[in-house]
Amino acid sequence: MPSYPGAPAGPGFGVPPAGPAFGGYPQPPVQSYGGGGPAQIPDYSGGQAPSPMPGLPAATVQYTQGTIQAAPNFDANRDAEILRKAMKGFGTDEQAIINVVANRSNDQRQKIKAAFKTMYGKDLIKDLKSELSGNVEELILALFMPSTYYDAWSLRHAMKGVGTQERVLIEILCTRTNQEIRDIVNCYKSEFGRDIEQDIRADTSGHFERLLVSMCQGNRDENQNVDYQKAQEDAQRLYQAGEGKLGTDESCFNMVLASRSFPQLKATVEAYSRIANRDLLSSIDREFSGNVERGLKAILQCALNRPAFFAERLYYSMKGAGTDDSTLIRIIVTRSEIDLVQIKQVFSQMYQKTLASMISSDTSGDYRRLLLAIVGQ
């Protein structure tokens, strides 16, 4: 992983909204999601999941919480000293490093990074990189990246070099709030000197390209009030653009799914089921294919139950032979302070096993210990 900017002298990204933030980016708002009722949550994996997604009470999905909270009685200098001792001399005390990084918020980690440089005249990240390797190194470096920078870095990494990691683009651009997307776009420009929209146009094509460009605008309606008449009209419009005609009017799907609020989309999904006698996800399955299908479905899954979308991504990062460690790390890190508690709950309901047990059987050593510490085991 490349080096990335050190924390500024003041507080880092993640300070309360009134304070300054990393690179001048404001703290994203607390995300609130609409809860899904039992009748409206379809099976998310196109029939691959071991069991259909159970309905969740609205409160479970609406009020989210992370497994990592800001540590009380936080002392950045003391933590910097602990990390210095853990890396000094012969060998590395990985457990001491894990105890600190898994129990501090992202904002607190930025302060530790700044304190370390002040106290020792050394770059904490360079020191960590020299002591660690492999997946545990990638995980710890991800934890020390300011949140907005990590999303921007992940997007850059997904489009850099030969080939494109389309699932990473979908996972980030189709699930973040407007403010988060705008911050990511600004950070991408300031840190990498590149325009994310131009990179997307160069790396993708067709209807998938258009969907991602729409997502980059960060202009989704975020009004939480639902207009049921509009939901009915949108559902009718989507039916006429797909199941109700020969061929598909892709731009109609793009317009509705890229611009309506998540609660509004949830109401549209419910209205669509009544009109078409089929759920909208399965219609998208029939009308689209490839990355644009995955992108449209990701948006709908977020409207219905965002933690379930991430639970499914985590499950498939570990299912079968081998592990998609980058996806596992990225989701655990990015959701650790937002909704990882809900993701764990939904994971158990969807797959009849806990997230921790799957991580335990798929990883090992310090990497496993740190992941389990973050998920709260």
From TrEMBL:
Domain notes: A pair of annexin repeats may form one binding site for calcium and phospholipid.
Domain of life: Eukaryota
PROSITE patterns: ANNEXIN_1, ANNEXIN_2
Alphabetical keyword list: Annexin, Calcium, Calcium/phospholipid-binding, Repeat
Similarity remark: Belongs to the annexin family.
Protein name: Annexin
Source species of the chain: Anas platyrhynchos platyrhynchos
Gene: ANXA7
GO cellular component terms, semicolon-separated: calcium channel complex; chromaffin granule membrane; endoplasmic reticulum membrane; nucleus; plasma membrane
BP term (GO), one: epithelial cell differentiation
GO molecular function annotation: calcium channel activity; calcium ion binding; calcium-dependent phospholipid binding; calcium-dependent protein binding; integrin binding; phosphatidylserine binding
InterPro entries: Annexin, Annexin_repeat, Annexin_repeat_CS, Annexin_sf
Job of this protein: Calcium/phospholipid-binding protein which promotes membrane fusion and is involved in exocytosis.
SMART domains the UniProt entry points to: ANX
Region (Disordered): 1-58
